[in-house]
Amino acid sequence: xxxxxxxxxxxxxxxxLDGANPxxxxxxxFYDLLVFRGSAPLFWRCSPRNFLEMYRTSIGxxxxxxxxxxxxxxxRTRFPVSNPEITLADLNPSTLDFTAERLAHFKTTKxxxxxxxxxxxxxxxxxxxxxxFLLHCIPGSLREKGVAIRHAAAxxxxxxxxxxxxxxxxxxxxxxxxRWLMNxxxxxxxxxxxxxxxxxxxxxxxxxxxxFDLAVRGCVALWRARKS
Length: 228
Fold this sequence. Notes:
Elements: E1 2-5, H1 14-20, H2 25-42, H3 48-58, E2 62-66, H4 72-76, E3 85-90, H5 93-102, E4 107-112, E5 126-132, H6 142-145, H7 147-154, E6 156-167, H8 176-188, H9 198-208, E7 211-217, E8 220-226
Parallel strand pairs: 1-4, 2-3, 2-5, 3-4, 5-6
Antiparallel strand pairs: 6-8, 7-8
């Protein structure tokens, strides 16, 4: 069951829109294969098992997914309850519709939202929030777009969990093939991670949480943080 939220974000920078626009329905049909079976293990050197384990150990009964992709990880995770409530937040209506259809057996709410703005959900209303493979698609350095982490934290209750993953270009090992693909995607405006450094991500987590774990697999950073 899917419920639409009629909120519309304010004016959005064109570069932010350009990072979201490639994910139309035709592209989404191939996304799982290209990302989770292709680029993640082969170019970024991060097995899909890492993402699935993070979801399995972090997700709550009322969950907020920010930047929804295709719902691949949500479909495959194990929720702590049989009837979870899932809020899907994304700038792109195509990804929202695709993911809501995939998760039709769950109660989902679709929200058109810009992660760089305060999210249109009640404060401290969710048990968990995820930003998976989102930050490297948003323009700017992590010192700037790290505000998305703060907005995610604002939506999670005390004791809840904020978790996510992003592809970094600095402070992590990047293979030659990975660097080539990263440069190509940055040139096309699909990625915006040429300034993204592990130290800046760590600083953003420190600013927002007293308790967090940060791990690196290949050039992918994965984190889990507990809200005080």
